[in-house]
């Protein structure tokens, strides 16, 4: 504790060696809400999503991320309905969801409510029967026999993994760059979309994303979220990227395998040096985690609330996956119809409070608009405590990431206080 006390305030270290994209002003205090249109309602339509926008606005949602809304390929598709990420046509809407006009209406309604909408964009691969396979076969990767083949990637174990329902795009062909950028621009210019979440962004050349962002920003300022954690993606193209390392620590805390020490180490020694103005997407769940790993109760147990608080108060832009506000307690099927049971929206108030906390306190805003993390010594190494300050505004957060009550002492307060297991305290001076 003496070492910690000697540097009572320890700022998170970042580097800012690159010229970064100019973030849309509206993104600085924003949160992201991910919508799976197929499972969001029994109808599974864009109109059903639109009907819920007033509720989401009431909850404080700022950016609505729609998972892929395109028609899904039929050739070699998986399950009954196929994967959302096997795109058949980049400039069309899945007829199961509705029409392009339905999406236009949804976007117009969101804008009227002061919200923004981003589309999930699959730039690395397409369905086998994507319209480009016939129109532009030279835009696809081919094997030694000159045949288009399933996407095959190397996995962490040193082997390979085949995605049998999709084929890879070949970015060595610069004509593909124009075709893909034009398709993205259609949704921004003709439908009013405010940006994109780029699926498997790290598998597509950064130079493509850089030029695409430049072209889209000429239409209007867009928000770009990368499913990746490469600092170079922030040079020109992306506002935000996934903070998988922090989520990994959260999962370990949920299993009792990590705690305050790991959180402090993450803050003071981040695994990668990101630009100070880079937004990191913070989350406890999303469509991949939910479908393949489990619901919040499975991953975090009683630690979930505390981990959600950290996702909102540590630097970054927080994400809520649809259904979390209803305490979604199961894996949603990925290739089948499996609508969310909304029950009574049990946690809607919890998320509304966190969304308001972030918006009302500039110290918690994203990038350089918010304050850097300053670790606090509260006299107990089992407790994780930090402060963020921006101008006159400061927020202190104290979290007990253990299954036992923990005593702590806040500087300036008389005596010790106690945090119950898995609980937190947020101090915002008036």
Automatic annotation (TrEMBL):
Domain (Glycosyl hydrolase family 13 catalytic): residue spans on this chain: 34-358
**Which UniProt key words apply to this protein?**
Signal
Q: Entry's CDD domains?
A: AmyAc_arch_bac_AmyA
Signal peptide coordinates: 1-19
For this entry, the protein name equals Alpha-amylase
